[in-house]
Amino acid sequence: MFRTLLCALIICALVPTAALGQEGGEALEEKGAKEMAFGQLSEKQQKLVVGMLKKLFKEGKVKAQESIREDGSFVPYGYVSNHQGEGQFLHINPEQKMQAEVAAHAVQKTIITNALRGNLAASGLFMTMALPEGVKEKTQKQLKESIKGDRGIDDVRFLMVELQHLGGLGLLMSVPYWQNSEDEWVFGEPVSQQIKPELQMAVKQMMRKAAQQQSNG
């Protein structure tokens, strides 16, 4: 079932990107993905990548906020950008009933698979949860300032978005949200913190493993 779900995500969510590869650009895209994963971003490129990731966050969070206003939460989903800057959603099949953690893992696997294929350069994983462990003290302070009223940081939920770029940059965006006295969902200001470039690390590891297997074979 897990393998079937991943295939459905790859085929249905990334059809436009895959079509570009089938028309002759796949080898070039794979070469670009390898160079990007094993390269090093200049200071200027880092600024451009940060801007790209924040744009990805801004575009992808619209759906998240709509889902929260309707149901208070949602099944984790992805929003990715290919090398041409085109954004696309990665959705879990609604007929597949699974826990949020399993759904998030499935989306992550799909993101890595398509990065290896040269189909994407950046990704965003959108989830809702209580404040997770590992959030920096500075980030927690900023989040507390973003929460209005007499609520504490443990009394609200969070829209958490893990943003990754294949070039080697990761950002975690945290948005507190809660219900006011009129049962309307209210969102605080987003707070960002830099995290490990997990996408780049995963792609490099898998490329190295594949190269080693090829040389041994």
Terminal CA distance: 31 Å
Strand content: 15-25%
Structural class: alpha+beta
**Based on the structure, what is the oligomeric state of the protein chains?**
single chain
Report on the architecture of this protein:
About 50% of the residues lie in helices and about 20% in strands. With about 220 residues, it is an alpha+beta fold. The chain has one domain. Strands 1, 2, 3, 4, 5, 6 and 7 form a 7-stranded antiparallel sheet that branches. β4 and β5 (about 170-180) form a beta hairpin. α1 crosses α4 (about 100-115) and α4 (about 100-115) crosses α6 (about 200-215). The longest helix has 29 residues, at about 45-70. Keywords: Signal.
Topology of this structure?
Blueprint: H1 2-13, H2 15-38, H3 43-71, E1 77-81, E2 87-90, H4 100-116, E3 122-129, H5 137-146, E4 157-165, E5 169-179, E6 185-187, E7 191-195, H6 198-216
Antiparallel strand pairs: 1-2, 1-3, 3-4, 4-5, 5-6, 5-7
Helix pairs in contact: 1-4, 4-6
Condensed summary:
The chain has 217 residues and is of the alpha+beta class. Helix content is 51%, strand content 21%.
Which key terms come to mind for this protein?
disordered N terminus, 6 helices, alpha+beta, seven-stranded antiparallel β-sheet, signal, 217 residues, globular, 21% strand
